[in-house]
């Protein structure tokens, strides 16, 4: 933005009513646009220049005074010093992405000019792709990191263009492409996981194998045991999963509670499991697990039943594929 002030004088002994015409111009705005000036007084009018994508703007405005024979003409010229910007990257290629999962790419907007550059990135033609920050200022000889995220909600090929308007410079374009697919998985286990009758305090386990047999993309599954605290998951060696580390194939997801911070989550997890791998009744809620299966691979784990009270269980195991309802997984 640029601002200039002009002084409008009333050099006679009559009240003058003045107004500025043709203020429809989008680049120049006047404040105030009209008003009354007392005899032998003056008024200050502020002109604000808002440049667009072009480097300069010119316009003429008429100052209309009531009773005057003709309008006073005011010519306005606004110029923006040249900026030179470009994207470091030539394109954004997300490759193949599983439906329902977030994939992030970073691009860099570089300003090689001697003046600050103001940019604005247009909203893309799909809600699955977001850009942050979409607008801002890049200092001279500076750079701005822009994050582009893809989170597809259904199988689809993406082929679009990211448009970035630079004030006083040309519009930059960046090709964006990618494809969202649903992994093809197969669950190998007994059709009915029947633990039979076991004593309170003892344990039994059933093996489950998940195979990722198609799509050439990782499969992310969620096993929800939050409503059944007497059930838990163990890895293929029989060790109970009690970690929230995100570098493992099977991890516990943090509880979906706003009143817990990270330290609360860790202490609650530790309290749930005893040193011998059993479960504690201190927290009457199970956990939700995230299971990652690499392309053309499989993962083996155990569902452990460790009852803490006399009860009869019969329910459907909630194992869902990311982006797909649980009934379809």
Strand content: over 45%
Class based on secondary structure composition and strand pairing: mainly beta
Shape: elongated
Number of helices: 1
Largest sheet: 5 strands, mixed
Give an overview in words.
By secondary structure, the chain is mostly beta strands. It contains one helix and 24 strands. A hairpin with a 6-residue loop joins strand 6 and strand 7 (72-79). It is elongated. Mean pLDDT is 80; it is low at 257-282.
Write a short abstract of this structure.
The chain is mainly beta and 329 residues long. The chain has 1 helix and 24 strands.
Q: How are the secondary structure elements laid out?
A:
Elements: E1 2-9, E2 16-20, E3 28-31, E4 34-37, E5 42-49, E6 56-65, E7 72-79, E8 85-87, E9 91-98, E10 103-111, E11 117-121, E12 129-132, E13 135-138, E14 143-150, E15 156-166, E16 172-181, E17 184-188, E18 204-214, E19 219-224, E20 231-235, E21 250-252, H1 262-272, E22 288-293, E23 297-305, E24 318-321
Parallel strand pairs: 9-16
Antiparallel strand pairs: 1-5, 2-4, 2-6, 3-5, 6-7, 8-10, 10-14, 11-13, 11-15, 12-14, 15-16, 17-18, 18-23, 19-22, 19-24, 20-23, 21-22
């Amino acid at each position: 933005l640029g601002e200039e002030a002009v002084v409008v004088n009333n050099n006679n002994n009559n009240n003058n009513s003045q107004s500025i015409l043709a203020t429809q111009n989008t680049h120049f705005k006047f404040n105030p646009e009209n008003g009354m000036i007392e005899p032998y007084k003056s008024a200050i009018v502020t002109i604000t220049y808002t440049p667009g994508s072009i480097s300069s703007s010119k316009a003429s405005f008429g100052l209309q005074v009531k009773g005057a024979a003709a309008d006073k003409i005011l010519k306005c010229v606004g110029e923006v010093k040249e900026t030179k910007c470009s994207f470091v990257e030539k394109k954004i290629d997300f490759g193949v992405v599983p439906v329902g999962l977030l994939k992030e790419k970073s691009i860099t907007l570089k300003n090689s000019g001697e003046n600050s550059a103001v940019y604005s990135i247009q909203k893309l033609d799909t809600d699955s792709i977001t850009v942050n920050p979409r607008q801002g200022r890049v200092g001279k000889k500076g750079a701005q990191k822009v994050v582009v995220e893809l989170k597809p909600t259904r199988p689809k090929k993406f082929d679009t263009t990211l448009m970035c308007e630079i004030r006083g410079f040309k519009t930059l374009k960046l090709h964006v492409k990618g494809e969202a697919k649903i992994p093809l998985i197969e669950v190998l286990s007994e059709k009915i996981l029947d633990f039979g009758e076991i004593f309170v305090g003892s344990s039994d386990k059933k093996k489950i194998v998940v195979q990722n047999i198609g799509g050439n993309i990782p499969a992310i599954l969620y096993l929800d045991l939050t409503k059944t605290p007497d059930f838990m998951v163990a890895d293929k060696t029989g060790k109970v999963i009690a970690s929230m580390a995100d570098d493992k194939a099977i991890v516990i997801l943090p509880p979906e509670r706003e009143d817990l911070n990270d330290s609360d989550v860790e202490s609650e997890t530790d309290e749930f499991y005893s040193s011998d791998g059993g479960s504690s009744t201190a927290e009457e809620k199970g956990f939700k697990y995230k299971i990652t299966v690499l392309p053309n691979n499989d993962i083996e784990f155990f569902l452990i039943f460790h009852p803490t009270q006399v009860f009869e269980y019969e329910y459907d195991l909630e194992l869902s594929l990311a982006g797909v309802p649980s009934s379809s997984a």
